[in-house]
UniProtKB/TrEMBL annotation:
GO terms for biological process: lipid A biosynthetic process. Pfam families: PP-binding. Residues 1-74 form the Carrier domain. This is Phosphopantetheine attachment site. It comes from the Bacteria. The keyword Lipid metabolism applies. Keywords: Fatty acid biosynthesis, Fatty acid metabolism, Lipid biosynthesis, Lipid metabolism, Phosphopantetheine, Phosphoprotein. It comes from Sporomusa malonica. One of its GO terms (molecular function) is acyl binding. GO terms for cellular component: cytosol; membrane. Gene3D superfamilies: ACP-like. The keyword Phosphoprotein applies.
Amino acid sequence: MFEQVRDIIATYKRIDPKSVTMDSALVKDLGLSSLDLVSLVSIFEDTFDFELDEEAIPKISKVADIVQLLEEALENN
């Protein structure tokens, strides 16, 4: 799951996938804005065919948070 998330983020930001780690902070390390995060959530929802609870978005601060949310969402479907 991490590799897919990493590749989506790297493609979106046009950065080297090696610069994206589980511990990467989305804003501080990867330079994402809140709009970027909403756009990425939409991409993840389309890619993995699920809907993320909008209340979860403010809780996402690291790549690991995205991976965890995706894994939980996919387990529940």
